[in-house]
Each structure stands twice: as structure tokens, then as C-alpha cells.
Design goal:
The complex is a heterodimer of chains A (409) and B (399).
Chain A: E1 20-23, E2 30-33, E3 52-56, E4 61-63, E5 72-76, H1 77-102, H2 117-126, E6 132-134, H3 140-145, H4 150-157, H5 189-203, E7 209-214, H6 221-232, E8 237-243, E9 246-247, E10 250-251, H7 252-255, E11 270-274, H8 278-293, E12 299-304, H9 323-333, H10 335-345, H11 351-374, E13 394-397, E14 404-407
Parallel strand pairs in A: 6-7, 7-8, 8-12, 11-12
Antiparallel strand pairs in A: 1-2, 3-5, 4-11, 9-10, 13-14
Chain B: H1 2-12, E1 17-24, E2 27-34, H2 41-55, H3 59-70, E3 72-74, H4 75-89, E4 93-97, H5 113-117, E5 122-124, H6 129-141, E6 145-149, H7 160-168, H8 170-173, E7 183-187, H9 203-207, E8 213-215, H10 220-232, E9 237-241, E10 249-251, E11 269-272, E12 277-281, H11 285-298, E13 303-307, E14 310-312, H12 316-326, E15 329-332, H13 341-351, E16 363-365, H14 376-380, H15 386-398
Parallel strand pairs in B: 4-5, 4-6, 6-7, 7-9, 8-9, 12-13, 12-15, 15-16
Antiparallel strand pairs in B: 1-2, 3-10, 8-14, 11-13
Classes of the chains: A alpha/beta (409), B alpha/beta (399).
Enzyme class (chain A): oxidoreductase
Main location (chain A): mitochondrion
Keywords (chain A): Carbohydrate metabolism, Glucose metabolism, Magnesium, Metal-binding, Mitochondrion, Oxidoreductase, Phosphoprotein, Pyruvate, Thiamine pyrophosphate, Transit peptide
């Protein structure tokens, strides 16, 4: 009835082919629906949404630095939707893994990352895919941000041949290009990361290495050895301590004489960052990357974050902390909610749009879980493969002297 | 006359050890001088000069001496040359470890390399084995080809997690996505008077783990060829040298002087042919086995001495073939007996086709099952001596 200058979201989805009156939800105009699309389309034009907005972010505490990252971050609509999608994918993937573990389809170790999504997504937003990253065993989120697909990750958890490591690595040993795992030995990944940074400097490609560890690992001697060498040789290494307040069942107060993890690098400049805010993490990572790429040497970031699950699937996570604490973090500081609120309150996205992303993500996870459950296990022929790289085929002793198994590179 | 000696001095300064053949009245006299520092050689030349006048040595003999000298290379120099050539060949190869750069190497194995290649490629590390071994492994993962030197393998125990869990297992855990082309090298096993904490042999420990290649050279040729192969190998290689062998000179064939001289990892070498008994050994113990074989030969016992060269993958086939010929086997190693290299060889012989050919139980000659003592008399009796090998051979043959 009234002229439409914009496409409006159709109020409901009806498969009828004759015109009928309805009230458009968007503009509350009485209109005649003359053409019904079979699919609900979120068809608000971009003119409707704010393309970008600036947000105040928490100030980072600094150590041996003149200034910290900026106090404001600019977020574009595209970026916001992308971060939302990735964080939601991560969240749902971890929750699905929890489910599959309880159904005994995933076995062994499973260290879930939900609650810490802002860290992985924020870090990736601050670096390039050509940079390098290494982390410890709570690695599913990083495998995703570094180019792994949900299907590959979940199939690896269920130990199937379609897994990212063909089922031979499991939860803690996932690798992609420029992502060195997934490391099971607490703290061992830190010298490895500095080694990757050494290679970056040696090869002169202006790449850097992000080297992650937890609050529990932060007390490891080899990390201090690494701080020393990285600083001496000015390696382009961003050390990141993901402080989720608990090293397995031990709170930080009970494990560390100094819980200022960002200062533990001593001669290495440090930042303490709000790890629940993806923008804060992103800005800090950009700042740190700039520091490294300008040849100033390593820098340390402490991300203050929280994990909702226990240390691993065998830990209910409530014997050393209260349910109230977990609930409080969930309601006040959840990274996905924070981003969602920001985008909605600044008119950068609509509720429906985000809901749609949720639906798509759920579907992706369901598909991946379906694949992970139905894909066959690796063939027994693969048992002895991948011992050596670029070597001629060899024989490997089986469980008894008469069994000689074949091994190829 | 003395002008020739001057030329000789130039040649002498190139080598650590001089073998001097002086032809005296149709007899040949071997004089071995272990020369540690270059400034001793001029004195040596003067001594030769004086003696030569006395013994009527002609200039042409000096030239022959030079020719013979040029083919003698110590294990230390062989390792040095191998590393030098590999550093030159591939930009990605670099060396890191304690004192490898400005100090020229704790045992002078990396002498001259820092002067030639600089800070970027020859890196002095702080005394933090776990840290720098991890850094080396990380660098290997990211595309470089590090040589990680442990001052001795005793200190590698501090870093053993990085060697096994980060280097050896990664290619398998990643199902082939991530390779680790790294060499861990350094002196292994007993030295002289360095006592318990500095004398352990790690051949069995590293030889235990899949994903690693473990190499234990004996001669200069072994050292050169195997180190080159190790550096060119795309997998983690543990390269077990021996401090007491560093200064020992060996003849190097023409072929072994080539820049592409490689000894395949996983193949043993028969150092001495024999019919009566197979003697299998690795590293320094091969010297003792050959000496024992020389003594036994006078009594009519011909030992077949096999130099393992590689601990993992073990060349069981070479040992089996030999045992099927000689029907007797002993293994000789410097390390402790329990769960050692000898134990593995014997188990394989038991499980393989050669068992039926044994006329006597195969036995192991090993270091004594104690931490290494300090006093010389105690230390000497803690490792196999030539007499122990001779005794074991005779017991096996008479049993």
C-alpha cells in the first residue's frame, strides 16, 4: 500500500501464493504481501546498520613500557560478524565435544576452551596467517583460528581417519600450516616457540611467533630460560600467558609467588590485558606485533581470562572454585555476550542476523559431529607410518618377533 | 736441506697429529705425537731435522712423509670439516650450543666456524640446555636445519624432553604434517677422570625411542660421512661422539675427502674380516676390539670385528650374516649392561635366523654396572679393557 523504498524483513514465512495483508515488522506498515519467498531473508540493507563504531576498551597495565595499546578500538560490522561467528563456532564446538566425551565417543584427554574464545579470536585478528603460533594442550580454539576446519578437529578428537592428524595425534596434537600444536608437556612449547621466532628472524620474512602458555606453566624453568635467550637475541616472539586463574586445580595464589604474570619476564616488557574482551586482545596483539616487527625483541602479554569447564573432562571444575564464581563470569564477562551487546547496542547487527549465525553455526557443528562419529577409524596399515620423513619404506617390529609391520614416510 | 724442512713446517701446521715415518737402516719407526697446539709442530720439525741429519734422511723421504701426513685426519678435524662443508652447502644449517662460537668449541670441534660464518649461523648459548634444545627444535620445525651441540650428552638429560617429546615424536603425532630436521651432537660416554656425572653412555636411552635415528661413529671417516648424512637427514638424529676419540688420527681414503661423501645411516661396517667369532661394537670400543683382534690373531683366532656405526636403526642383518659365518658372538660397549645396546643385539639374534647358527651363548662385554669412579685405577677397571675382550672371546670359543 505504501511505497517501499527498502526491502523489509518478511514477518513470517508462508507458502501461499495469493496476496494477503500483513503488517511489516520493521516499519509497522500495513502492506500486501504479494510475493512470498520460501526462505526468511534477513534483507535489511547495509544502510540500516552502522558500518563501524569505536569502543572504549580497558586500559592495559604495562611493565617496562612507555605506553600501552590504545584505549579505543574501532570495530567494523564485517569484523564484528566474523569475530562473533568464529567465537560462536568455537563455543559450540567445545560444548559439542563435551557432549561427545560424555557419550564416550571422545576418549583420553579433552581440554576445553569455552570461556576463553576472545583470546584465540583476538590474537588471530592482531596477526597474519603468515605469522606463526604455538600453544599448549588447550588447543582446539587455536587449531580453528589457524585454518583447521571443525570437521577435521572433531574427527581428530574422535580418532578417525578424517582427523587433522589422521587420528594419530588426538586432542593435544593438532597441527596446521604455521601452527605447531597442540603440545602435551607443560611449558615445553615455549622454547619451541622461541625457536620458531629464531627461524623467522633468520629467514628474514618479517614474520613473528606467538607463543602461548598458561598460568600454571608460567612457573616452569624452561620459560625463564627462553625469556633470557629471546631477549638476548631479540627474537620476534610474543609470549602470551593465558591466565585463567587455575592451573588444573591449583589457583594462581597457591602456585605463584608473584601472580603478576606480565611482569615475570623481568627485562621483557609486559602488558596485562582483559582477555574476555576480543577488542582489547586484538589491540594488545597489534601493539605487541608492532613491537616485535620493529626489531625491539620479545614482548609478554598476560590475558586475564576464564574457562567455564574444568581443567579437562575428568575435572568437574567445582571442587576448587564455586559455581557462583563460574556463573558470575558467565553473566558479567562472557566474551560472546560482550561482543553481541556491543554490536546490538550500536546498531551494527540485528538480533535476527546474529540468531541466524547461531543457527548456521549449530548446523556446521552438527554436520561435523556427524562426520566425526561416522568417519571410519584409521586403517591398521597406517599404524607404523610417519616415523621418519623422506625416508625409504622400512620394517617395524610388531608386538612379537614374527610380526614385521610396514612403515612408509 | 733445511729449506725442505721449512716447507714441511707449513704442512705440519695444518694437522693436529703427526705420524712420522723415519726410515732408518731398512727399518721403519713410527713416532706418534699427540700435538694439541700448533706451536709445538715447529719444534717437532727441528727435532726431525736434527734426527734426519743423523739418520741420513733424504729430502725425497720428507716429501713422502708429507704425502702420507696429508691423508691422516683426526676425528675432531673430520667433524669440523663435515660441519664446515654442510654449513657452506645449505644456508639453513646452523650450529648452536655452549661455547661453540667464540671459544671455538669446548673440545675445539667447531674451531674456525664462527670466524668464517659469523653470529647468525654459529650461536653461543647460555647454559640452559632445556631452553636451547627447545629453541633448536622449534627452529627445525619452522624450516631451518639446526645442529644442536650438547657439551656432553650427560647434559642432554636436562633437555631430554625436548629431544624425545618435541623432536622424535612430532612427525608421527602430526601424521606427517610436521617434520623436525635436527641433529643433536656431542661427546658421549666415558672420558678420562671426569667421574660419575660426566661419564654416562646414552646410546641405549636414545636408541630406545622410535622417531629418532641414533648414530655412533668410530673413525674419522665414520665421523665425516655420518655427520654429513645426519645433517642432510630430514629427521631428528642423535649423533654420539666420543671425547677420547677426538684426537685420534685415521687414514682417510680419496673417496672420503669428497664434499658429498655420505655414509648411510643404518648400515654397519665390517672393520676386520674373520672366521671364528663376531665381535660387535660401536664408538671407541671398536679400537679396543681391533687391538684385541690383533693380539688374538697371533694365537690363531680370527675375529670379525663389526663397527655398528648406527645404534638406531640397528643393522641386525649385518650381524646376523656374520654370526651365520662365525657361529660365535660377543658385543662390546662402554655403557652399562642392563637394558643396553648389547642386550638388544643379543635379543635380536635370539629372535632371528642366526640363533640356530650359534655354537655358544652370545655374551656382552660392557662397562661395570656402577657409576663411574674417579681414581685412575678404578676408572680403568670400570670400562672394558683389551684383556676383557680377549678373555670373553676365548671363553665363548671354548665354551
Amino acid at each position: 500500500m505504501f511505497p517501499f523504498t527498502q526491502k523489509h524483513k518478511i514477518a513470517f514465512n508462508l507458502k501461499i501464493y495469493f496476496p494477503y495483508p500483513a503488517i511489516c515488522k520493521a516499519c509497522w506498515q500495513l502492506t500486501i504481501i504479494s510475493k512470498i519467498k520460501l526462505v526468511v531473508v534477513s534483507a535489511r540493507t547495509y544502510a540500516d546498520f552502522t558500518p563501524q563504531a569505536s569502543f572504549d576498551i580497558k586500559k592495559c597495565d604495562v611493565h617496562k613500557l612507555e605506553e600501552g595499546p590504545p584505549l579505543q578500538a574501532v570495530l567494523t560490522r564485517e569484523e564484528g560478524l566474523q569475530y562473533y561467528r568464529t567465537m560462536q563456532t568455537m563455543r559450540r564446538m567445545e560444548l559439542k565435544s563435551d557432549q561427545l566425551y560424555k557419550q564416550k565417543i571422545i576418549r583420553g584427554f579433552c581440554h576445553l576452551y569455552d570461556g576463553q574464545e576472545a583470546c584465540a579470536v583476538g590474537i588471530e585478528a592482531g596477526i597474519n596467517l603468515t605469522d606463526h603460533l604455538i600453544t599448549a594442550y588447550r588447543a582446539h580454539g587455536y587449531t580453528l583460528t589457524r585454518g583447521g576446519t571443525v570437521r577435521e578437529i572433531m574427527a581428530e578428537l574422535t580418532g578417525r581417519r578424517g582427523g587433522i592428524a589422521k587420528g594419530k595425534g588426538g586432542s593435544m596434537h593438532m597441527y596446521t600450516k604455521h601452527f605447531y600444536g597442540g603440545n602435551g608437556i607443560v611449558g615445553a612449547q615455549v622454547p619451541l616457540g622461541a625457536g620458531v621466532a629464531l627461524a623467522c628472524k633468520y629467514l628474514g620474512k618479517n614474520e613473528l611467533c606467538v607463543c602461548l602458555y598458561g598460568d600454571g606453566a608460567a612457573n616452569q624453568g624452561q620459560i625463564f630460560e627462553t625469556y633470557n635467550m629471546a631477549s638476548l637475541w631479540k627474537l620476534p616472539c610474543i609470549f602470551i600467558c593465558e591466565n585463567n586463574k587455575y592451573g588444573m586445580g591449583t589457583s594462581v595464589e597457591r602456585a605463584a609467588a608473584s601472580t603478576d604474570y606480565f611482569k615475570r619476564g623481568d627485562f621483557i616488557p609486559g602488558l596485562r590485558v582483559d582477555g574476555m574482551d576480543v577488542l582489547c586482545v586484538r589491540e594488545a596483539t597489534k601493539f605487541a606485533a608492532e613491537h616485535c616487527r620493529s626489531g625491539k625483541g620479545p614482548i609478554l602479554m598476560e590475558l586475564q581470562t576464564y574457562r567455564y569447564h574444568g581443567h579437562s573432562m575428568s575435572d568437574p571444575g567445582i571442587s576448587y572454585r564455586t559455581r557462583e564464581e563460574i556463573q558470575e563470569v558467565r553473566s558479567k564477562s562472557d566474551p560472546i555476550s560482550m561482543l553481541k551487546d556491543r554490536m546490538l547496542s550500536n546498531n551494527m547487527a540485528s538480533v535476527e542476523e546474529l540468531k541466524e549465525i547461531d543457527v548456521e553455526v549449530r548446523k556446521e557443528i552438527e554436520d561435523a559431529a556427524q562426520f566425526a562419529t561416522t568417519d571410519p577409524e584409521p586403517p591398521l596399515d597406517d599404524l607404523c607410518n610417519h616415523i621418519f620423513y623422506n625416508d625409504p619404506p622400512m620394517e617395524v617390529r610388531g608386538t612379537n618377533p614374527w610380526t614385521k609391520l610396514k612403515s612408509v614416510s | 736441506m733445511y729449506m725442505y724442512y721449512g716447507i714441511t713446517m707449513v704442512f705440519f701446521t695444518v694437522f693436529w697429529v703427526c705420524h712420522i715415518y723415519i726410515y732408518i737402516n731398512n727399518m721403519t719407526l713410527f713416532i706418534f705425537y699427540h700435538v694439541s697446539y700448533q706451536n709445538v709442530t715447529p719444534f717437532l720439525c727441528i727435532i726431525i731435522a736434527l734426527h734426519s741429519v743423523e739418520y741420513h734422511v733424504l729430502p725425497c723421504d720428507i716429501c713422502i712423509i708429507n704425502c702420507i701426513l696429508l691423508l691422516q685426519v683426526t676425528v675432531r678435524d673430520a667433524l669440523n670439516q663435515a660441519m664446515d662443508e654442510e654449513l657452506e652447502r645449505d644456508e639453513r644449517v646452523f650450529l648452536l650450543g655452549e661455547e661453540v662460537a667464540q671459544y671455538d668449541g669446548a673440545y675445539k670441534v667447531s674451531r674456525g666456524l664462527w670466524k668464517k660464518y659469523g653470529d647468525k649461523r654459529i650461536i653461543d648459548t647460555p647454559i640452559t640446555e632445556m631452553g636451547f634444545a627447545g629453541i633448536a627444535v622449534g627452529a627445525a620445525m619452522a624450516g631451518l636445519r639446526p645442529i644442536c651441540e650438547f657439551m656432553t650428552f650427560n647434559f642432554s638429560m636436562q633437555a631430554i624432553d625436548q629431544v624425545i617429546n618435541s623432536a622424535a615424536k612430532t612427525y608421527y603425532m602430526s601424521a606427517g604434517r610436521q617434520s623436525v630436521p635436527i641433529v643433536f651432537r656431542g661427546p658421549n660416554g666415558a672420558s678420562a677422570g671426569v667421574a660419575a656425572q660426566h661419564s654416562q653412555c646414552f646410546a641405549a636411552w636414545y636408541g630406545h625411542c622410535p622417531g629418532l635415528k641414533v648414530v655412533s661413529p668410530w673413525s674419522a671417516e665414520d665421523a665425516r660421512g655420518l655427520l654429513k648424512s645426519a645433517i642432510r637427514d630430514d629427521n631428528p638424529v642423535v649423533f654420539l661422539e666420543n671425547e677420547l676419540m677426538y684426537g685420534v688420527p685415521f687414514e682417510m681414503s680419496e673417496e672420503s675427502q669428497s664434499k658429498d661423501f655420505l655414509i648411510p645411516i643404518g648400515k654397519a661396517k665390517i672393520e676386520r674380516q674373520g672366521n671364528h667369532i663376531t665381535v660387535v661394537s660401536h664408538s671407541r670400543m671398536v679400537s679396543l676390539c681391533l687391538d684385541a683382534a690383533a693380539v688374538l690373531a697371533k694365537e690363531g683366532i680370527e675375529c670379525e670385528v663389526i663397527n655398528m656405526r648406527t645404534i638406531r636403526p640397528l643393522d641386525a642383518e649385518a650381524i646376523e650374516t656374520s654370526v651365520m659365518k662365525t657361529n660365535h658372538l660377543i658385543t662390546v660397549e662402554g655403557g652399562w649392561p642392563q637394558f643396553g645396546v648389547g642386550g638388544e643385539i643379543l635379543a635380536r639374534i635370539m629372535e632371528g635366523p642366526a640363533f640356530n647358527y650359534l655354537d655358544a651363548p652370545a655374551v656382552r662385554v660392557t662397562g661395570v654396572d656402577i657409576p663411574m669412579p674417579y681414581a685412575k685405577i678404578l676408572e680403568d677397571n670400570s670400562v672394558p679393557q683389551i684383556k676383557d675382550i680377549i678373555f670373553s672371546v676365548k671363553k665363548t670359543l671354548n665354551a
